[in-house]
Specification:
The protein is α/β, with parallel strands linked by helices and about 775 residues long. The strands form four sheets. It has an eight-stranded mixed beta sheet. An eight-stranded mixed beta sheet has the order 13-14-15-12-16-17-11-18, with helices on both faces. Strands 1-2 form a two-stranded antiparallel ribbon. The chain is elongated and about 135 Å long.
Length: about 775
């Protein structure tokens, strides 16, 4: 062409030439879209915080529909939004996280992981919290010594002095004041109802100990000539729903019996050796504390257990006993005890004239639900109703106590935190970080989560890098660790513990003892196994990360703090939308405030976040999420760090295997979400749950499949029916994926998940979840 003399002129205009940008990393679709956008000359914001909202005309239609005026959820698990080049991109980062970045991918074309955009708008109108002029008067604190003392209630001087000097109990609580004289003087059945932390355990134990002591010791301390020994017969039986509560009752009783060492008590619970239990029963006991299943077993198979001399039957936490399906065992136990003729003397000729001349049943329950009334019909006869404020006759058992209102202690301060789904994890870390920012402000905190798989994941996520020590063989090697992310200069060491019903009983006992005896700031991540009756000193904060399955469980959860007159705080996480209506449904009688998540995030991330060391043996300084960032930027950087950590665990045979644990926890969480009681399900509507955002709260970049046994699993199930059945038989699981023989007395079962389940539409998936939710229904 040059030889022909032709000249080609190209008009490039006045615009400067743009440098060709090559996009690398991420998904190929994202690279193609970014490349096309660059060719078209589209430009997004050059820089800035992730807090900048996207222009409305560039927002994906599906995202707009998901959070429009009608607040309907997206029907797709993987939602998309516009990136900085104006193109659709998945809402997660494909680059690598560098501490100090504001959440933007480090490579050109990296996709930003946005936390503070595309969130639903809360319906609640938030008000500025009003500081109380003076703190509320505790409603479960002991009375003044001038108003009452234990000796005046009918207890002997020996017991009263022991309570005062050894147990440092100067005065009774209101429920003890009303209960102890009644159970000492009368032989009527009783129904005890009082708020958490008010001393119900001692209210029924002290009268029993007093009347048994009266057989051997007079009021002036002299001997009656009758000596009660451990082989004198079984005189009282106490039933409790969980093993932890049984052990706690036994520990309280042991302290009381130090003033009467000739009276012997013991426990028979699941998870312990039946052989050793039979040996203790053969030696003889006076007071037996048991779970219903194990006691029913001993009544059927242990001939040495004689209930003919038993005078008292105490049913503690009666509502929980019925909820956990112990009705048949309770009917059997009550029937067998009543069927046995009441003996006026034991085999040695010792007469029990000072004891009740009929069998006395004491039912303790915080609420008056239908199942409690049914339990009252089974166990009570001509019972009296005793509360902290009154004592009244009830000829029909408990039928006239429906109007009794059970509330949390008045000094408990409750907070409802409205948090979007994908901000839940960083908000939880911010809350804990701010709570432990001052030394001594919070010593112990309890985090309640809906299911055991989620407990395991959050414990592994928040724990510090595991260190190999000589103590790895201890029972708490995998349940107690140092915490990461939530430490502060004031509290450089925080203990992290986990507890749920799938752990072996010795591990559960050792973990709870470690939390009870810890002198360092501690955080216990647990299921509802720890919501009933447990009394751990110095619990200052209760966090309901997952809402309880019923209002009654909520009241018991928050009752782990503000006990015996102490102050306490409780925080409930709720999502914008239908869950906000749950606030009005609770109708709390204690000071409560509704707050957005923003102040918590700002307060928690006002200081840098310390990241755990990848290598425990490294001598390098700890990495910080800092470099003049705003709290929101730190939150996004932390979220990206957690997501990167999960992805890194997929490539390594690490200790935690976080990615698989996160997927398993997400599936169990979704299933458990569908099991709220019927009257509360309108507030926890699973069809309104955004799966993609919820997955982000587990550090996942997309929602995994295989949540329920839906249509997409039928083909795969037909192909692998034989092999899966063999594997389940080897692993000891049943058809639902629950471990066969596992003692799930207080926990949501762990469901199996199909990793290769195909994608399906939202409505079909939700139907599958609802069909599979039966295995999680603990309410």
């Amino acid at each position: 062409m040059a030889e022909s003399g032709m000249l080609l002129n190209f008009d490039i205009g006045d615009v400067a030439l743009k440098k060709q940008v090559k996009f690398t990393g991420g998904y190929w679709r994202d690279r193609v879209r970014a490349q096309r956008a660059a060719k078209k000359g589209l430009q997004g914001p050059s820089s800035g915080s992730n807090n900048t909202p996207l222009p409305d005309h560039r927002r994906d239609r599906r995202e707009t529909d998901a959070f429009g005026d009608d607040d309907r959820p997206s029907k797709r698990q993987r939602t998309e939004t516009a990136d900085q080049n104006g193109q659709r991109a998945r809402r997660y980062d494909t680059g690598s996280l560098h501490p100090g970045t504001s959440g933007t991918g480090s490579k050109p074309g990296g996709v930003t992981s946005r936390l503070f955009t595309s969130n639903p708008t809360p319906k609640t109108v938030f008000e500025h919290p009003v500081e109380e002029s003076e703190p509320a008067k505790p409603s479960n604190a002991p009375l003044s010594e001038d108003a009452a003392n234990f000796h005046a209630l009918g207890l002997s001087r020996r017991i009263a002095q022991h309570l005062s000097s050894k147990l440092e109990m100067k005065a009774p609580t209101p429920i003890q004041k009303n209960t102890i004289p009644q159970l000492i003087r009368e032989d009527n059945d009783a129904f005890l109802q009082a708020e958490t932390g008010s001393g119900k355990t001692l209210a029924y134990l002290l009268p029993i100990v007093q009347r048994i002591m009266a057989l051997s010791v007079n009021e002036d301390g002299t001997s009656t000539g009758t000596q009660i020994r451990r082989d004198s017969g079984l005189l009282a039986v106490v039933l409790a729903p969980t093993r932890e509560l049984c052990k706690q009752i036994a520990k309280v009783l042991e302290k009381v019996l130090r003033c009467a060492p000739w009276i012997v008590s013991t426990t028979v619970i699941g998870g312990e050796s039946k052989k050793s239990e039979k040996a203790r029963l053969r030696k003889g006991i006076n007071i037996l504390i048991a779970t219903p299943g194990r006691l029913a077993d001993h009544l059927d198979n242990t001939k040495v257990l004689d209930v003919g001399t038993a005078r008292w039957l105490v049913l503690d936490e009666g509502d929980r006993l019925m909820e956990m399906g112990f009705e048949e065992e309770l009917r059997s136990i009550v029937g067998k005890i009543r069927k046995e003729p009441l003996k006026a003397a034991n085999k040695d000729g010792v007469r029990f004239d000072a004891l009740p001349q009929r069998r006395v049943t004491v039912l303790c329950s915080a609420t008056m639900k239908m199942n409690v009334q049914k339990l009252g019909e089974i166990s009570l006869q001509d019972a009296i109703h005793i509360t902290a404020t009154k004592t009244g006759n009830d000829a029909d058992g408990v039928t006239d106590t429906n109007d009794a209102v059970f509330s949390a202690p008045s000094q408990l301060k409750q907070t409802f935190l409205i948090v979007p789904a994908k901000l839940r994890l960083v908000t939880l870390i911010a809350l804990l970080k701010s709570s432990f920012s001052r030394k001594g402000s919070v010593m112990k905190a309890i985090i309640f989560i809906s299911c055991a798989d989620s407990v395991d994941f959050h414990f592994d996520l928040l724990r510090d890098t595991p260190r190999a020590t000589s103590d790895d063989r201890s029972l708490t090697a995998n349940t107690v660790s140092s915490a990461a992310y939530i430490t502060s200069p004031a509290n450089t060491t925080i203990r992290l513990l986990k507890l749920h019903g799938s752990l072996q009983q010795p591990v559960r006992t050792a973990t709870l003892a470690s939390f009870h005896n810890s002198k360092d700031p501690s955080v216990l991540i647990t299921t509802d196994i720890a919501s009933r009756g447990l009394d751990v000193p110095a619990v200052d904060l209760v966090v309901e990360y997952d809402p309880a399955f019923s209002v009654d469980d909520h009241v018991h959860r928050v009752g782990r703090t503000a006990r015996a007159g102490r102050s306490g705080k409780a925080t409930l996480f709720l999502q914008p939308g239908c869950e906000e209506g749950y606030i009005g449904f609770l109708k709390t009688s204690t000071p409560a405030s509704t707050q957005p998540y923003d102040p918590t995030v700002q307060k928690g991330f006002v200081t840098p976040v310390t990241l755990p060391k990848p290598d425990p043996s490294s001598s390098e300084a700890p990495t910080l999420v800092t470099e003049k960032q705003s709290p929101n930027s730190r939150a996004e950087a932390l979220q990206l760090h957690l997501e990167q950590r999960l992805l890194a665990s997929e490539k390594q045979d690490g200790h935690a295997k976080l990615l698989d644990a996160a997927r398993k926890a997400f599936r169990s969480h979704i299933r458990a979400y569908a099991t709220h009681v019927r009257e509360e399900r309108v507030y926890f509507d699973i069809t309104q749950l955004h799966l993609g955002h919820t997955a982000k709260s587990f550090g996942l970049r997309e929602a995994p499949g295989g949540i329920g046994g839906g249509p997409s699993r039928r083909t795969a199930a037909a192909k692998t029916k034989a092999t899966s059945g063999e594997k389940k038989g080897e692993k000891g699981t049943d058809a639902t994926g629950t471990k066969a023989g596992a003692d799930s007395d207080d926990d949501v079962p762990r469901g199996a998940a199909d990793e290769d389940a195909a994608r399906r539409r939202m409505r079909m998936k939700m139907k599958a979840v609802m069909d599979a939710s039966g295995e999680f229904n603990i309410g």
